[in-house]
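Work Package 3 (structural annotation) set out to generate three-dimensional models for the target panel prioritized at the project kickoff. During this period the team completed the workflow that converts sequence records into discrete structure tokens, so that structures can be stored uniformly alongside our sequence database. As a representative example, we reproduce one entry of 163 residues exactly as it appears in the project archive.
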Amino acid sequence: MNRPPAAPTPADQQRLALLIEAEAIQLGEFVALLEREEALLTSGDTDALLALTQDKNERYRRLQRLSDDRALLLGRLGRVTSDTTLRELLADLPRVLARWDEVIGLARQASERNAINGKLILERMAHNQAALSVLLAAADQPPLYDAEGHTRAVGGGRMLGSA
């Protein structure tokens, strides 16, 4: 039997407000991290990218925990996790509602930045694959220098059809 949604207590509303505040802060930092990732991808600084990846993964886990906590709170109140639900619950808290709007905007920015960075990674991988193909093709060619460092003519053998 479905029970009607519970009215949030002031403590529930405060918890929700704190979760939204924390999520806004974390998302702002995550977007800044994605901007830094884009700059590193553009410059090709792979060492810094490796360090950034660990930070990015940790921040993503923090954001996921905040989202999970919000979903648990809403579930305990018998509510579905949705923008409409949050707007209904925050209707009498305009500052928290404004912060929720920031969360929505930052989440959109993070998604867009992540998509851009994904494209940059694919381009970098294609470039590296092309460079690797050139190197592998060059490895199949006879050396241009002998063991003593003297140049050797390529194709200096007999001409086909000559005796």
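The chain has a mean pLDDT of 87.
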